[in-house]
């Protein structure tokens, strides 16, 4: 089969790489390309990269660099304009080449599904912390642990196999958030300083700040990084007795967002009086990280709850909030080289294998583990 693959990410870029594979590569390139001088191009298996011209229509040519990989594969390095890249790919499709995505190409080229998934996820890794963990999996950390579990099962050592899988699954939450950010919802009564807190944490004004209660009706999101972990912050409508249907819907949306979040930051204005409504909110989100804002003002009366006492007007408070937030999200960061499942399919397969082991079904456990290695669907990158 003849294939054409764009290996560089979609969108505008300085350069693009188009890979051609298949028995027709030599003939098609010799027909399509000429040397920069206008001389005839000859496909040579062990040639150095060469500057060539590719016809794009109306007597126009695009200059590009050709690298011959082997007798049935070559790479074209050209200008990264998406329209130009599409025109070049379309010409090869017209010559009988099948278009393949770079993700499909990686799945086909890698030795197993786990390394393919890691390589694809690496393209979207937002931080070095995430990158280093995914590189460990690409290097075989997860595959080796699954191999150990399979060897234990082959020896009827169910206890060891179970321990290995439980160790892997202990990292489920961390693994699934390597490329999908932790969702953190900022929740609390109106005017507690939620929007100010969001802006303060990310370092620029993303949310509107206004002293009028109920200003935030539509939630605002912003992507950021906390101690190397990808995080998406949600600024939500203040919770109180709604004044109209619009506010009631905004408050209902706040509760939906909070229920789906990995962590809730429950924000109170410490300069106000502690009320029964505050106590009810604390009970509703009893696992939340409590932020007592506006410590730069005199404290309000009442039996206040415990929480992190801060002010968004005091820059020195910010590191403590970020440190506490990171500790809440990832209490025990994985050590270097740790095996970590990082796709939903991997986690589901490991859980299936563990359930089979608990039932004494070695055959089902072996099949589930082999499926993880052979059919682990990677996170798709847009």
Describe this entry's structure for a reader.
This is GTPase and tRNA-U34 5-formylation enzyme TrmE. GO terms for molecular function: GTP binding. It comes from Thermogutta terrifontis. InterPro entries: G_TrmE (IPR031168), GTP-bd (IPR006073), P-loop_NTPase (IPR027417), Small_GTP-bd (IPR005225), TrmE/GcvT-like (IPR027266). Residues 183-293 form the G domain. By secondary structure, this protein is α/β, with parallel strands linked by helices. The protein has three domains: 3-100, Gyrase A, domain 2; 109-171 and 335-374, tRNA modification GTPase MnmE domain 2 (Four Helix Bundle (Hemerythrin (Met), subunit A)), CATH 1.20.120.430; 182-329, Rossmann fold, CATH 3.40.50. The chain has 14 helices and 13 strands. It has helices at residues 25-32, 82-94, 102-109, 113-122, 128-138, 141-154, 158-169, 172-176, 194-202, 245-260, 276-284, 318-329, 344-358, 362-374, and strands at 3-6, 15-21, 34-35, 50-57, 60-70, 73-79, 98-100, 182-187, 220-226, 229-235, 263-269, 289-293, 308-309. The strands form two sheets. It has a seven-stranded mixed beta sheet. Strands 9-10-8-11-12-13 form a six-stranded mixed beta sheet, with helices on both faces. β11 (263-269), α11 and β12 (289-293) form a beta-alpha-beta unit. α6 (141-154) packs antiparallel against α7 (158-169), α6 packs antiparallel against α14 (362-374) and α7 packs antiparallel against α13. The protein is globular and about 85 Å long. The two termini are 26 Å apart. The mean pLDDT is 91.
List strands and helices in order, with pairings.
Elements: E1 3-6, E2 15-21, H1 25-32, E3 34-35, E4 50-57, E5 60-70, E6 73-79, H2 82-94, E7 98-100, H3 102-109, H4 113-122, H5 128-138, H6 141-154, H7 158-169, H8 172-176, E8 182-187, H9 194-202, E9 220-226, E10 229-235, H10 245-260, E11 263-269, H11 276-284, E12 289-293, E13 308-309, H12 318-329, H13 344-358, H14 362-374
Parallel strand pairs: 1-7, 8-10, 8-11, 11-12, 12-13
Antiparallel strand pairs: 1-2, 2-6, 3-4, 4-5, 5-6, 9-10
Helix pairs in contact: 3-4, 4-5, 6-7, 6-14, 7-13, 13-14
Pfam family, one: MMR_HSR1
Organism: Thermogutta terrifontis
InterPro entries: G_TrmE (IPR031168), GTP-bd (IPR006073), P-loop_NTPase (IPR027417), Small_GTP-bd (IPR005225), TrmE/GcvT-like (IPR027266)
